[in-house]
Amino acid sequence: MSRTSNSARAARVVAASGFLAVILYAIFAALQIFVVNPRAAAPGASLDDIYATMARAGESFVAGFPLAILATGVALALLLLVLIRRNTGTPPWIAATGYLVMIAFGAPALFIASFVPSMSLADTYGISGGDHSGWSSALYLVSACSFIACAILTLVGVRRPTPHPA
After folding, report:
1. What is the pLDDT of residue 134?
2. Contact at 8 Å (CB) between 43 and 134?
3. How far apart are the C-alpha atoms of 89 and 110, rounded to whole Å?
């Protein structure tokens, strides 16, 4: 088996793993926005009670916008997966860098996606609009580590010569 086919196989494995990582990030972000943070903001209340209290207060907890933001990341990750699978010359470090960038941009996406729901919670319960559970801090940390790993991988990757098919 040639070095190029091993590299293409490695890039496909990296892309599949990166796609899965982006999906998991989006799932945890959605859970943070719609379940964990509201429960932490109103301890002791069930999720149904929280949503009912918000509705009575005239605050909506519309899921469309936050889910659209999170789904956009997943869609971009799928597009990258398809592109990497179709381009057999993609080095694995470039595939990894692409997904690390997406996870790094998960932090601003999470902030944007959670802004309106958090403000609705804040207006309903007279609390701050910030994170009450700590989960977003964990997601932000994952994004920061991804950004750092992306920078390191890019520095190492551009210094390594890419093998060209004979």
Report:
1. 85
2. no
3. 33
DSSP of 101-140, one letter per residue? HHHHTHHHHHHHHHHHHHHHHHHHHT--SS-SSSHHHHHH
21 close to 96: Cβ distance less than 8 angstroms: no
d(CA 58, CA 73): 30
- What is the 3-state secondary structure of 29-44? HHHHHHHHHHHHHCCC
- Give the integer Cα–Cα distance in Å for 144 and 20: 18
The maximal CA–CA distance of the chain, rounded, in angstroms, is: 69
Identify which of 157, 77, 61, 150 has the alpha carbon closest to the alpha carbon of residue 109: 77
Q: What single-letter amino acid sits at 7?
A: S
Tell me how far apart the alpha carbons of residues 137 and 132 are, in angstroms, rounded to a whole number: 10
pLDDT in tens, the chain (166 residues): 455 688 889 999 999 999 999 999 999 999 999 999 999 999 999 999 999 999 999 997 789 999 999 999 999 999 999 999 999 899 999 999 999 999 999 999 999 999 999 999 999 999 988 888 988 999 999 999 999 999 999 998 777 665 555 5
The alpha carbon dihedral of 42, 70, 104, 20 has a sign of positive
